[in-house]
Amino acid sequence: MDTERERVLLAAAHAVTFKPDYMTVDKLEAATRGHGALVIPAFAAANSLAEDIFCNIGAPEMHLMNMTVVDASAPHLPLDSVIGKAVGEAKRAGAEPANAALIVATLAYFSGSCARAGVPLGNRKLGAIARMHAGGDRTSAIALTTNKFTHRVPAFPAYLAIYEGLMEKRLTRLDGAVLPPFVAGGGVMGHAALGEDYNIPELARNAAKVGTEAMMRSMEGAGTTPYPLWPALIAAAVTMELVHPDAMLGEEFGKFGEVDSAYLAGKGAVEAAKLPEKLHMRGTGEEYETARLVGDFGLILKDIGGPSVIGSMVTNELFAGFQESAIIGAGFSGGPVNVPLGHLAGDILPALRLLLANGGDVERTAAAIRDYKLASFIDPELALCALNTIARKAEVANRGSVTEAAIRASETVRDRAIYRRAAKAYEALKAGRSVEEAAAALDEEKKAAVEERGSAALSGFTGKEIRFRFTGIAPGARRTDPFTAKFWGFDAKISYDVTIGGKDYHIENLTARVIPEYALEGKGRDDPDMGTAIFVGAVLTQELQYSGHTILNVTVPAAVAAALGTDPKVAAKLAAKGARLTNAIPGAREAAERVAEIARAVYANLNEPGEGEDGSPA
After folding, report:
1. Is 346 helix (H, G, I), strand (E, B) or coil?
2. Same domain, yes or no: 118 and 184
C-alpha cells in the first residue's frame, strides 16, 4: 500500500545511503588520493590480487594464477605481473611507493607467495620484488617503525641491542677471530656444519631475542604498552639483514629445505615477545606457525624500503585478520571495539583466504565474513555497517571480489539497521516527540546495548563475571574551551559502576583522574582488580567515542523529519544535539543536513504522479 510511512522510510533510506561519505564523519574522500590512512589502497591492492588469482578469462590453467616465488632461470615470473599491477592500484589509490610495496608484499604472502626463492643467481625476495615494482628506494631496516600506539618507536633500539651484542661477542659461541682464512664466506661454513648447525641458528635466534626485548623496553620507556607484534617483526628484519638469509639449518632443526635462518629469527623474536605459538585466520580457521610468520616477515621487511608509520599502521590492521589479534597487539579492526574507518582493514586477509578456500565464490565468502563479524564485536550491527561504508568507498579506487564480498556480507545488516531506525524515528515523530528526542532515544538504545554486550564480551575475555553501567558521559574532563565542550570525544568525562567477580567499583572521571592517578601515582595498583576496572571502562568508552564511524543515529532521524516537513538545517541540528553520544566529534550535523535535503527532495518526488499516470504518454 502506498502510504506516507512507506514513502518517508523509502526517502530516508535512499538519502542516508546516497553515498558512503554520508554514513560517517571520517574523511573518506581524503583517504582515496591524499596523504592519510591506507585502508583504501589496501582494499585496492587486494582486489587486484584477487582478480589476478581468480582470472575469469583465458585458458583454464590461468584460472588460478601461480603466486609462488620459484627458483626459475627467467627474467620475469607470473608473480611479477601480478605484483606490478597490484602496487599500481595501491599507488593510484593514494599509497606512496614504499607503503604500496609493503601492502602488496603482505597481501601476496597471504595469497600463497613464499617470502624468498633463495637460488644463488636469481635470488628473488618477495619484499624486494614488491619494492622494485613500486619504484621504492632501497634502504635498511633502520627505516622501519612500529605501528603508532599513541607513540611509535623506530628500529634503532633493535639495532643498538643487536650490535652491542655483536661487539661484546654474546650472540654466538663462534668467535670470528679464531677462523683460518677462507672458511667464512664460502661453502665450507655457510652451507656446512659450522654455519648451519652452530653459528647461524645461534646468531639468528639470539639477535632476534635481544632486538625484540630492546624494542619492547623502549616502548615502555616511551610510556606505552609494549604490544609485541611490531617489536618481533622489526627485530626479525634487523636480524635478517645480518644473518645469511638463505641458509638451511642442520637436521636437528628439521627436514632439509623446511627450516631456514629466517625461521630461527622468528623463533627468537616470538620467544622474547611471548607471542602464541600458533595464529588462526578469522573465517577460515587456518593455522599459522607464528615463528615462521614472523621470520618470513623479517625477510620481507628487510627489503621493503622505507614505509612510513601509516604503512606500519595498515599492516598492523591487516594482521587483525587473525583471531589472536588482541593478544599479539595487532590492529584494532578485528574487534571487539568498532574503530574509525581509517583502521578498518582487518577483514582483507580473511576475505582473501576465504576466497581461496571457496574457489573464488563471493557468496560463501560473504556469509563467512558476516558470521565472524557478528560474533566478534560489542556492536556487530554497526561493525557491518562500517565495513559496508569503507568497502563501498574503496570501490571508488577499483572493484573486485574482496570489496564485493565485504559489501555482500554487510548490505542486508546495514539496510536493516537503517530501516529499524527510520521506523522508530517515524513513530516517535508521529507521536509528537521532537527530532531531538527521537535521536536521543536511538543513542540511549546504543548505550544500553554497549553496556550489556560489552559486559558479556569482557566477562569472556577476562574470565571474571563483569557487569557494567555508565553513570556519566560528558565533555569537560579537564578542559574549558568551547570546542571540546561541544564534542565530548576530545575530552571525555566518563564515570561508571562496574562489578568484577562480585566486587563493586565506582569510577569517577576515568580519563582525567583515575587513569593518571593509577599510572603515575600508583593509586589502586595494590588491588589486582583495579587494572581490570580501568581496562573495562577504557574498552567500552572507546566503543562510544568512535561512534562517528557510523552516524545513523543522527542522519536517519534528520532524514525522516525532513521528509515529514521539517527544514533540513533545523532537522540536522536537532538530530545532532539529540544523538550526543554519536556526535562525539565534528561532522555529523553537516552530513545530516545534506542527507535531510536529499530525503526531502526524494519524498516530494514520490508524491508527484509518475509518467503516464496523468494520461500523458509513458
Report:
1. coil
2. no
- Quick one: pLDDT band at residue 62, thresholds 50, 70, 90? very low
Distance CA 305, CA 232 (A): 18
Domain ranges, residue 293: 141-302
For every residue of 221-260, DSSP letters joined together read: HTTS---SHHHHHHHHHHHHHHS-TTPBPPGGGSSTTT-B
Cα separation, 299 vs 291, whole angstroms: 12
> According to the 3-state scheme, what is the secondary structure of 30-49?
HHHHCCCCCHHHHHHHHHHH
Residue 118's pLDDT band (cuts 50, 70, 90):
low
Helices (H) and strands (E) in the chain, counts: 25, 5
pLDDT of residue 36: 75
Q: What is the CA radius of gyration of the chain?
A: 27
What whole-number percentage of the chain has pLDDT above 70?
93
DSSP state of 304: S
Q: How many domains does the chain have?
A: 3
Same domain? For 172 and 101 the reply is no
DSSP type of residue 175: -
Within 8 A by CB and 6+ apart from 482, the residues are: none
Amino acid letter, 18: F
Residue ranges of alpha helices (H) inside 124-255 are: 126-134, 156-167, 187-190, 200-221, 229-242
Is there a contact between 372 and 406 (Cβ–Cβ < 8 Å)?
no
* pLDDT averaged over every residue in the chain: 92
Q: Distance (Å, rounded) from C-alpha 421 to C-alpha 553? A: 7
> Are 575 and 464 members of one domain?
yes
Dihedral sign of CA atoms 64, 356, 332, 337 in order: positive
